[in-house]
Write a structure and sequence with these properties.
Elements: E1 2-3, E2 10-15, H1 24-27, E3 44-50, H2 56-64, E4 83-89, E5 92-98, H3 109-117, H4 119-122, E6 129-135, H5 141-154, E7 162-167, H6 176-183, H7 187-195, E8 200-202, H8 212-227, H9 235-333, H10 342-507, H11 514-556
Parallel strand pairs: 3-5, 3-6, 6-7, 7-8
Antiparallel strand pairs: 1-2, 2-4, 4-5
Helix pairs in contact: 3-5, 9-10, 10-11
Domain AIG1-type G: 41-242
Keywords: Coiled coil, GTP-binding, Nucleotide-binding
GO molecular function: GTP binding
Length: 564
């Protein structure tokens, strides 16, 4: 806790990593005899949001009138967590919350947005206004992305509680040039200002002692409070924004999974066809090489066997010739001596011939066995060579296919990202158009309801007038009915007296001519009939006049009916 620059109020600063935790200095306000700080639910509660390096800390220091936030120059966000500060300005209690910078920070976007969402719980019962801090200059793609992330974190309805604050006002000649040079020239920035209800102001933090710019900001905030009828941004709105964001992410994830599954199926089918073709070509090539190798080996074996047989036969023949020559010489020298031994020599020679024959047969069998072993060894070597060659080729193919697949997936992911961004932009445009249509429809319905209420009030007045007229007509009909009953009663009395009179005259003792009595009787009957006709005509006239009045009243209220 410390005094402000003007030494007129106390300023409280607290910093938290996750949830609101009051510092020990704040908790000791009442214990050390200092002035009490108003509760967080009173006064104006402001949240400063914006891109890293936009000047949030400097703006907060300018509003509070002293340096309570760190404003050193850094390549990353100086503020890593939500920080809160309290102070007073011209008798009004101010509570400021600075959020971590968006983009250009070592934190991930999810962590930064998570810190930004904590402002609702840190400023209980909820922020009065959000201050979008934007540096004067070119409105870049990073600025657009920062605004998009903030709208995604807080919900689009948070713009109803927002004011755009442009920092580095010393770069402008006057405030009027801001709208001409920056807002009117950038459609995205003009759209942001329009979504915030046209509320914006310029801050020159180099002139922190100037209180006019703070007063201008508070005037905009007060006007926004009046427009919002004293409401503020609540946790319910934040929860609704998070639910909408979760639904959008789930829908995007579902579409992305479907596209990945479809792409994976296509790739698997292509890889399968390519493998089948490669395996078929390798098998065909292997069969041709095996047949050619087999023919070559058989030819070499046949040539070797033929050479071996020729050598063996030649050696045997030479040995036989040599022995024969020696035998002939011995016979010539000892012809007499060896006659007796001739049979023995012949037997020995026969044994030698049998041995040679047997040796040749064994040699042929060994050569056949050697040939078979060589063929089996060649077959095993060929199979092992083919297997190693296929494995090596398959590894190379899989490696090349994986590289191509990764490149294609990266290209597809880039296309999908661009498509999603375009879809989000179109969705925002469509949402804005729908909001305009809904607002026009509500205004039209309001006008129709007002016209309908006017018609209903007019009809009600006419209905009351007709009701009064109907009551009068009913009273007149009742009077006509009473008169009719009186006339009928008088007529009956008159007819009764007339009948009694006629009866008395008929019963009188005087004798009068028949013709006179007949004329009197006929006259009485005619008179009675005339009276009856008069009464009936009078009653009918009264009823007809009542119906005429009733129909006239119904026609006055425009009722499509008639009573006859």
């Amino acid at each position: 806790m410390s005094l402000c620059r003007d030494k007129t109020c106390w300023t409280c600063v607290s910093e938290t990593d996750y949830w609101p935790i009051l510092s020990s200095d704040i908790q000791k306000h009442d214990d050390d005899g200092g002035r009490k700080v108003p509760s967080f639910s009173a006064g104006v509660r402001l949240v400063l949001v914006g891109k890293t390096g936009s000047g949030k800390s400097s703006t907060a220091n300018t509003i509070l009138g002293q340096k309570v936030f760190d404003t050193r120059v850094s390549s990353s966000s100086v503020t890593q967590y939500c920080r809160r500060a309290c102070g007073e300005f011209r008798g009004r209690h101010l509570t400021l919350l600075e959020t971590p910078g968006v983009l250009n920070t070592h934190q991930t976007a999810q962590e930064t947005l998570k810190e930004s969402r904590k402002c609702v719980s840190l400023l209980s019962p909820g922020p009065t206004a959000f201050l979008f801090i934007i540096r004067i200059g070119r409105f870049t793609h990073e600025d657009k992305e920062a605004v998009r992330q903030l709208k995604q974190a807080m919900g689009s309805h948070a713009l109803n509680f927002s004011v755009v604050v442009f920092t580095h006002g010393d770069l402008l000649e006057d405030a009027a040039s801001l709208k001409h040079c920056l807002i009117d020239q950038c459609p995205d920035l003009a759209e942001l200002v329009a979504e915030c209800g046209g509320r914006y102001c310029v801050f020159n933090n180099q002139m922190s002692k100037s209180k006019e710019q703070v007063s201008e900001l508070l005037v905009l905030v007060d006007g926004m409070i009046q427009v919002n009828k004293g409401s503020y941004y609540t946790s319910t709105m934040l929860q609704k924004a998070e639910e909408d964001l979760i639904q959008e992410l789930l829908e995007e994830r579902r579409l992305l999974n479907e596209r990945e599954e479809l792409l994976q199926k296509k790739q698997e089918e292509a890889i399968k066809k390519w493998y089948e073709r490669e395996i078929e070509m390798v098998q065909q090539k292997s069969r041709m090489e095996m047949e050619e190798g087999k023919r070559e080996l058989e030819k070499q074996l046949e040539e070797k066997l033929a050479r071996d047989r020729e050598d063996t036969f030649r050696r045997v023949m030479e040995e036989n010739d040599r022995k024969e020559k020696e035998r002939k010489i011995q016979e010539m020298v000892k012809i007499m001596d060896i006659r007796q031994e001739e049979e023995e020599k012949r037997e020995v020679l026969q044994e030698k011939l049998d041995k040679v024959t047997k040796m040749l047969e064994e040699q042929i069998q060994r050569e056949a066995k050697t040939k078979q072993e060589m063929e089996e060894k060649m077959q095993r070597y060929r199979l092992e060579s083919e297997k190693k060659e296929r494995e090596r080729e398959l590894q190379q193919i899989e490696k090349a296919q994986a590289i191509r697949q990764r490149e294609e997936m990266m290209k597809e992911l880039d296309k999908l990202t661009q498509s999603l961004e375009e879809q989000c932009r179109k969705e925002e445009e469509r949402k804005k158009l729908m909001e305009d249509m809904l607002r026009q429809e509500r205004e039209k319905n309001q006008r129709e309801r007002e016209m309908h209420m006017e018609n209903l009030r007019a009809e009600k007045k006419m209905t009351e007038a007709v009701t009064q007229e109907l009551k009068l007509i009913k009273m007149r009909i009742e009077e006509h009915r009473v008169r009719e009953e009186n006339l009928k009663r008088k007529l009956e009395q008159y007819l009764q007296r007339d009948a009694e009179k006629c009866e008395k005259e008929l019963c009188a003792p005087k004798k009068k001519p028949e013709k006179r009595y007949s004329q009197m009787y006929n006259g009485a009957i005619r008179k009675s009939a005339e009276i009856q006709s008069t009464v009936t005509t009078a009653a009918g006239y009264a009823q007809e006049m009542g119906l005429v009045g009733l129909n006239a009243a119904l026609e006055t209220v425009r009722t499509p009916c008639c009573i006859q």
